[in-house]
Write a structure and sequence with these properties.
Number of strands: 11
Number of domains: 2
CATH superfamily of the largest domain: Glycogen Phosphorylase B
CATH architecture of the largest domain: 3-Layer(aba) Sandwich
Number of helices: 9
Strand content: 15-25%
Radius of gyration: 19 Å
Shape: elongated
Structural class: alpha/beta
Helix content: 25-40%
Strand order of the largest sheet: 2-1-3-4-5-6
Largest sheet: 6 strands, parallel
CATH class of the largest domain: Alpha Beta
Mean pLDDT: 93
Distance between the termini: 15 Å
């Protein structure tokens, strides 16, 4: 396999950022990653520049003048609430996580070294992991009243999921889009339910907003069925190592 040299512009200040997970997976696959802050406009000598979010076109223009293709791998549905006229959607190769036919699609995943089940005594019936920042989610939380988990990352999250019967989740309303919460919950050993979204895997039980309690009550009563499905969710959850294989296949296809 030919080693590819990536100049990766991103948020690497936190060891749990998606950019950090992708950079680690690229290295495990044998590629070279030169990390730069996403606000850095100094061009790296590389085969591709890679980024998730850019607010200026400078680095894209510099790369093009030097014959270096740019890759945007974007994790949020920016086209839904910002439209298409945004710098990181103007890269030479645009990859999104929302299944937009205009672009290439590679979904998110879980960090491979942290795809671990930590089983424990159940102390929570229902939890929600994350912030409450839009109305539909706030209303859902108010109805269900789950245990709210915030600022918990890595294997600490695996431990909490091992103590939990049901992890409740939803994603910002957008067509064929779901957030990394699905992979962070299922890939760390949790049993996960989510609001209805087109294209969502069938092994994720889905609910209509306003009817969350019905599906929660069902799976609280049916422990064996819940556990069987939880195991399937865990096994089916991809890692970023899997996603890097998809990325390299895409780049080889485009190059050929």
């Amino acid at each position: 396999m030919k080693k590819i040299k990536f100049g990766y512009y991103g948020n690497f200040d936190m060891n749990w950022s998606t950019e950090t997970y992708i950079a680690d997976a690229l290295k495990r696959a044998g590629h070279i990653v030169i990390k730069r802050d996403r606000n850095n406009t100094t061009l790296v000598d590389c085969d591709y520049i890679l980024f998730a979010k850019l607010f200026k076109m400078d680095i894209i223009y510099k790369a093009r003048r030097n014959g270096i293709p740019s890759i945007s791998w974007t994790f949020d549905p920016y086209r839904t609430y910002l439209g298409y006229n945004f710098p990181h959607l103007k890269a030479d190769i645009v990859i999104t996580t929302d299944g937009d036919d205009k672009y290439h699609t590679i979904r998110q995943a879980v960090q491979k070294p942290e795809k671990i089940e930590i089983k424990d005594k159940k102390i929570y019936d229902v939890i929600f992991v994350g912030d409450q920042w839009y109305k539909l989610r706030k209303k859902m939380i108010k109805r269900v009243k789950p245990k709210i988990i915030t600022n918990t990352r890595g294997l600490d999250l695996n431990r909490i999921l091992g103590q939990t019967k049901i992890a409740l989740g939803d994603s910002y309303p957008a067509s064929n889009y779901w957030s990394n919460r699905i992979y962070e919950m299922t890939g760390r050993g949790g049993f996960f339910i989510h609001n209805k979204v087109e294209g969502l895997p069938k092994y994720i039980p889905q609910f209509e907003y306003g009817k969350e309690k019905e599906i929660i009550e069902y799976y609280l009563k049916h422990e064996d069925e819940r556990e069987e499905l939880r195991k399937i969710q865990f096994e089916m959850c991809p890692t970023y190592d899997d996603r890097i294989k998809e990325l390299i296949e895409l780049l080889n296809k485009i190059k050929s």
